[in-house]
Every structure is written in C-alpha cells, then in structure tokens.
Automatic annotation (TrEMBL):
Keywords assigned by UniProt, alphabetized: Membrane, Transmembrane, Transmembrane helix
Organism ancestry: Bacteria, Pseudomonadati, Bacteroidota, Flavobacteriia, Flavobacteriales
Subcellular location as annotated: Membrane
Superkingdom field: Bacteria
Full protein name: DUF4870 domain-containing protein
Pfam families: MamF_MmsF
InterPro entries: MamF_MmsF (IPR019109)
Keyword Membrane: yes
Organism expressing this protein natively: Flavobacterium procerum
TM spans (from-to): 20-38, 59-84, 104-133
Presence of the UniProt keyword Transmembrane helix in the record: yes
Amino acid sequence: MEKTSEKNTAAFTHLSTLSQYFIPFGNYIFPIIIWSSYKDKSEFASHHGKQALNFQLSLLLYTLILALIAIPIFIGILFQNIPLEAIINDEDFIIRNLNLEGNIGLLSVGITAVVLFGLLKIVEFFLVIYASIKASNGEYYKYPLTIPFIK
C-alpha cells in the first residue's frame, strides 16, 4: 500500500507536465526534477515519473513527425504560388493568382497533420488528468501509445 505522500508525489508528477502551457519545456523540466528526487525513495513515484516522462517524450516525437509532414507541404505549396499579386484597396486585401487546384491532395495531408496535432494536444490534456487521478488513487498507470525511452 502506497503512502499518501507517494500518491501525491506521483499525481503531482503527472500534473507538472501541464506547466508547458505557462513555462516553455516545463513538461520536461518539472517531471525530471520530481522523478529524480523520488526515484530511489519510492517505486510508485518512480513508476509514475517514468511514465510521465516517456509520455512527454513520445508526444515530442509524434509532434516532430507531424511537423516534418506539414511544414514542407505548406512551404512547398506557398513557393509554387510565389508570383502572388496582392492588391490592397481601402479595406480589402485581394490575392490573385493563388492556384491550389493541383495541390489539393498535398494540402489535405498537411491539414490532416495539423488537425492530428490539435487532437494530440487535447488527448494529452485529458490523459494527464486521468493519470494523475489514477496515481492519487494509488493505482499504477501506463499511458497508451507511449514509447518506453526510460526503463
């Protein structure tokens, strides 16, 4: 049976990943600090610290893959249409010669990658909350689709 302090530490490790919305790289820094402080003291806190870090590293990898798909597509489509003529009237901004007809397939792939990224961030938020609830209840939790970087 885990002590209340171990449960709180494990739950706080998961919740500390949400600091990414306020502090750049907080989703890596704070879990590493908490995990490295408690990994030798508590197997339960160590398990949850590893899970939180592995999940964040997996999300980073998935985000980089989506970015490597979407960014070149959008840049390539933009540069194919570089001779854009923009007209600025009093209140109107008109772009002429923007042709997306031949690029609908690529554009769809790029937009799909961006939508998947958005869904990934939403799913991340809810999984972090769920994992922290499981940890606070004293249960072991393993994030889905997580690559075990730290064993």
